[in-house]
Amino acid sequence: MVNIIWVLIFVVSILFAAINGTMDEVNKAVFTGAKEGVTICFGLISILVFWLGLMKIAEKAGLLDSLARVFRPFISKLFPEVPKDHPAMGYILSNMVANMFGLGNAATPMGIKAMEQLKKLNNNQDYASRSMITFLAINTSSITLIPTTVIAIRLNYDSVSPGEIVGTTILATLCSTVGAILIDRYFYYRRSRR
Amino acid sequence: MALINTISIWLIPMIICFILVYGTFKRVPTYESFVEGGKEGIKLSFSIIPYLVGMMVAITVFRASGALEYFIGLLKPVLQLIGVPGEIVPLALMRPLSGTGALSITSDLIATHGPDSFIGQLASTMQGSTDTTFYVLTVYFGAVGIRKMGDALKVGLLADIVGIIASIVIVTLVFG
């Protein structure tokens, strides 16, 4: 699936460039795109090192377990395949909490750790398990409570009320998260019927 | 507003402080554990590079070739029929593809139409309510070496559509 999409993006783009006469820009885009990819990864190093370091302390102190215990009933409904006291639970939860407060930078390392644990549960196989897809669905629809970046931009452009979009954002994010869970369930049942 | 601002400024330092104090209280070797976890972070960041470079090149080429604009042009008249402002279409298409791309479109929309205009409010809500699906997919699956994504991309993109439609409906109801 990802192979076909990836190739398709390139082929369609290059066809368009041939028709539009934008081959020159495409040439530049190859280099800027590659550079951007590496830049993002290097930007991630600082964040990943700091937050994974801190999370290691939280993990050893038993904080992740306590967090998982509090939300267990709710989360185990969402992830029926994850055992109740599995470390994946703690990471999934810290990722969700970080996302809710708009701490995107802190959310990524915990999301990756959660994926790592989910992969272990899946016997280290290289395909996405049911729980992994659910986790991604919730993550990409991002449950946000405080859209900090957007508020900052609005402040920058002298909004009369920079925070007025918090309410609409919470509602919209709620819709997309509920939608994501339902869509995820639909695809799961379609898969399991086969 | 001031409260939200204060919370978002105080939150991270408070979390750091809490974890460190709690860890010390529980007799965790804090600094050594931090270094141990940090080493994993370095390994992870490097392992993501090829995944992210592959995706970023595909998406920047897609934008530069004019293909994205062509699809925006196709969608605009259809959406305008049902009362969706055409200005928002580039953002709706860019949001799942590229985080920095979407952020620059949002800033641009807010700058040209004003943060308190309908388009400004809609752009703000859309930007805040979904995440960059391609990025999350690439980074999370790339980091742990998942090669077969299954339905993940389909589910992610369909959820984005739900989020975009929800933003339009809700902003229209609240501010429209």
UniProtKB/TrEMBL annotation, chain A:
InterPro entries according to UniProt: Gate_dom
Regions crossing the membrane: 6-26, 38-58, 88-112, 133-153, 165-188
Alphabetical keyword list: Membrane, Transmembrane, Transmembrane helix
Source organism, top-level taxon: Bacteria
Domain Nucleoside transporter/FeoB GTPase Gate: 42-150
A Pfam family recorded for this sequence: Gate
Name of the protein: Spore maturation protein
Source species of the chain: Lottiidibacillus patelloidae
Upper lineage: Bacteria, Bacillati, Bacillota, Bacilli, Bacillales
UniProtKB/TrEMBL annotation, chain B:
Keyword Chloroplast attached: no
InterPro entries: Gate_dom, SpmB
Domain of life: Bacteria
The UniProt record lists the keyword Transmembrane helix: yes
GO cellular component assignments: plasma membrane
Domain Nucleoside transporter/FeoB GTPase Gate: 46-146
Transmembrane regions: 7-25, 45-62, 155-175
PANTHER family given in the database record: INNER MEMBRANE PROTEIN YJIG
Protein name, entry field: Spore maturation protein
Species: Lottiidibacillus patelloidae
Lineage, broadest ranks: Bacteria, Bacillati, Bacillota, Bacilli, Bacillales
